[in-house]
């Protein structure tokens, strides 16, 4: 079983923000377009949008209709990221950490988290690696994780902090951690915005994994997470509305 260390037990994911209807998985990877009327009646999506800045809301307004329910709102993501950033900064103050963003999904979380790492550890660097295994409109992993190094920095001898948007089956993280270790990283710590423990099929018990929010077995979108490359700019994490057809 995976070792999922709650990052800061004094600041758990707020249960009141998570839906109690956790049990219904998506039955199909194909979806049909919902009516605008049903979208307009989504109180949770409206609430989430009103929690966000007006500029962000304008960007994402047309995308709210594809959200069945909000799991983690923008305010809670911001608060949790600030807590985690502060703690990471203290823990890695003397380690010259290399904070690696797993593209594309982790980009917003990585940006906010690294900015929240204050006071910044002396010598902190950022880098980017692309990992891709959910292709097109798939809601299940292909199992074939393609890695592409995007930066010049080398993980050899470095204290690496991998930043992910979601740990689902664990396939991607397994490959990334093994890659960093094989390349000579001193240590590898993983920080993931979301964890879907119910879907884990890969053993990560040897991985130092820090989780911001536990979520149920639902296909989620927003805050970097996509369905067929859409919805990454939603300012919150929500469940993709069953029946969604983005074409
Ligand atoms: O635990 P797993 O089952 O491996 O799933 C997690 C991975 O899936 C997503 O990546 P994806 O391949 O969709 O690429 P993306 O980040 O560019 O969306 C996500 O960003 C994680 O990296």
From TrEMBL:
<dbReference type="GO" id="GO:0032264">
    <property type="term" value="P:IMP salvage"/>
</dbReference>
<comment type="similarity">
    <text>Belongs to the purine/pyrimidine phosphoribosyltransferase family.</text>
</comment>
<keyword id="KW-0547">Nucleotide-binding</keyword>
<keyword id="KW-0328">Glycosyltransferase</keyword>
<comment type="pathway">
    <text>Purine metabolism; IMP biosynthesis via salvage pathway; IMP from hypoxanthine: step 1/1.</text>
</comment>
<keyword id="KW-0808">Transferase</keyword>
<dbReference type="InterPro" id="IPR050408">
    <property type="entry name" value="HGPRT"/>
</dbReference>
<dbReference type="InterPro" id="IPR029057">
    <property type="entry name" value="PRTase-like"/>
</dbReference>
<dbReference type="GO" id="GO:0000287">
    <property type="term" value="F:magnesium ion binding"/>
</dbReference>
<dbReference type="Pfam" id="PF00156">
    <property type="entry name" value="Pribosyltran"/>
</dbReference>
<feature type="region of interest" description="Disordered">
    <location>
        <begin position="1"/>
        <end position="51"/>
    </location>
</feature>
<dbReference type="GO" id="GO:0006178">
    <property type="term" value="P:guanine salvage"/>
</dbReference>
<dbReference type="GO" id="GO:0005829">
    <property type="term" value="C:cytosol"/>
</dbReference>
<feature type="compositionally biased region" description="Low complexity">
    <location>
        <begin position="16"/>
        <end position="51"/>
    </location>
</feature>
<keyword id="KW-0479">Metal-binding</keyword>
<protein>
    <recommendedName>
        <fullName>Hypoxanthine phosphoribosyltransferase</fullName>
        <ecNumber>2.4.2.8</ecNumber>
    </recommendedName>
</protein>
<dbReference type="GO" id="GO:0032263">
    <property type="term" value="P:GMP salvage"/>
</dbReference>
<feature type="domain" description="Phosphoribosyltransferase">
    <location>
        <begin position="80"/>
        <end position="227"/>
    </location>
</feature>
<dbReference type="GO" id="GO:0006166">
    <property type="term" value="P:purine ribonucleoside salvage"/>
</dbReference>
<dbReference type="GO" id="GO:0000166">
    <property type="term" value="F:nucleotide binding"/>
</dbReference>
<dbReference type="InterPro" id="IPR005904">
    <property type="entry name" value="Hxn_phspho_trans"/>
</dbReference>
<dbReference type="GO" id="GO:0004422">
    <property type="term" value="F:hypoxanthine phosphoribosyltransferase activity"/>
</dbReference>
<keyword id="KW-0660">Purine salvage</keyword>
<dbReference type="GO" id="GO:0046100">
    <property type="term" value="P:hypoxanthine metabolic process"/>
</dbReference>
<dbReference type="InterPro" id="IPR000836">
    <property type="entry name" value="PRTase_dom"/>
</dbReference>
<keyword id="KW-0460">Magnesium</keyword>
<keyword id="KW-0963">Cytoplasm</keyword>
């Amino acid at each position: 079983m995976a070792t999922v260390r709650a990052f800061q037990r004094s600041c758990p994911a707020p249960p009141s923000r998570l839906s109690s209807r956790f049990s219904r998985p998506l039955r199909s990877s194909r979806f049909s377009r919902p009516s605008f009327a049903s979208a307009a009646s989504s109180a949770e999506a409206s609430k989430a949008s009103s929690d966000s800045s007006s500029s962000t809301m304008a960007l994402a307004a047309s995308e709210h209709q594809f959200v069945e329910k909000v799991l983690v709102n923008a305010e809670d993501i911001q608060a949790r990221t600030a807590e985690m950033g502060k703690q990471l900064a203290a823990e890695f103050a003397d380690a010259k950490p290399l904070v690696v963003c797993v593209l594309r999904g982790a980009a917003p979380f990585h940006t906010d988290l690294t900015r929240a790492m204050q006071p910044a550890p002396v010598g902190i660097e950022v880098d980017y690696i692309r990992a891709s295994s959910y292709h097109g409109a798939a809601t299940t992993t292909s199992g074939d994780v393609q890695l592409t190094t995007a930066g010049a920095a080398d993980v050899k001898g470095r204290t690496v902090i991998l930043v992910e948007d979601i740990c689902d089956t664990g396939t991607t993280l397994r490959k990334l951690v093994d890659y960093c270790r094989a390349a000579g990283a001193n240590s590898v710590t993983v920080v993931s915005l979301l964890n879907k423990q119910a879907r884990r099929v890969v053993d990560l018990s040897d991985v130092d994994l820090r989780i911001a929010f536990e979520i149920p077995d639902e296909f989620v979108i927003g805050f970097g997470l996509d369905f067929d490359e859409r919805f990454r700019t939603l300012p919150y994490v929500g469940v993709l509305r069953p029946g969604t057809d983005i074409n």
